[in-house]
């Protein structure tokens, strides 16, 4: 039976609005602050970086960053060997490719051999340019290193990576 007065009949918009207000329908759950932050790319990256620092222990501190920076800035100077020794004594060998490459020019054969082994492990995940640069550096080390131990280690790395 049709309505006589068009005004009495609610529009579909009003019906939907009433349905949304009903306590019997599911309400959209409010997102927490963390969920909203994880949707934002910049905040997510920052959050993950902080979590990494938390699990990194000593290597996640500001002092660690300063020590790494000191190695990079002192490369090619007289202070380089001391900066590397201090870093290795405090934190062990670094884990990043660039710093390990720099350590190949250190005087101490133990540090150089350790860096060679660490770089050998990282080698498969690097691009062709980095791999080629590393192989060139190892070839030079195998021919010009003053320590026989370093020369032998370099030759072993070359043999293993070329096989």
Task: Tell me what the structure shows.
The protein folds into two domains: about 30-90, no CATH class; about 95-160, no CATH class. It contains nine helices and no strands. The chain is elongated and about 105 Å long. Helix content is about 70%, strand content about 0%. The mean pLDDT is about 85. It has helices at about 10-20, 35-40, 40-55, 60-75, 80-90, 95-105, 110-120, 130-145, 150-160. The longest helix has 17 residues, at about 130-145. The chain has about 160 residues and is mainly alpha-helical. About 15% of the residues are buried.
Helical content, roughly?
A: 55-70%
What is the number of domains? 2
SSE string: HHHHHHHHH
Radius of gyration: 31 Å
Sheet with most strands:
none
Determine the mean pLDDT.
84
Number of strands: 0
Properties at a glance:
2 domains, single chain, 68% helix, elongated, mainly alpha, 163 residues, 9 helices, 0% strand
Topology:
Layout: H1 12-21, H2 33-39, H3 41-56, H4 62-74, H5 80-91, H6 97-103, H7 109-122, H8 128-144, H9 148-162
Helix pairs in contact: 4-5, 6-7, 7-9, 8-9
In short:
The protein is mainly alpha-helical and 163 residues long. It has helices at residues 12-21, 33-39, 41-56, 62-74, 80-91, 97-103, 109-122, 128-144, 148-162.
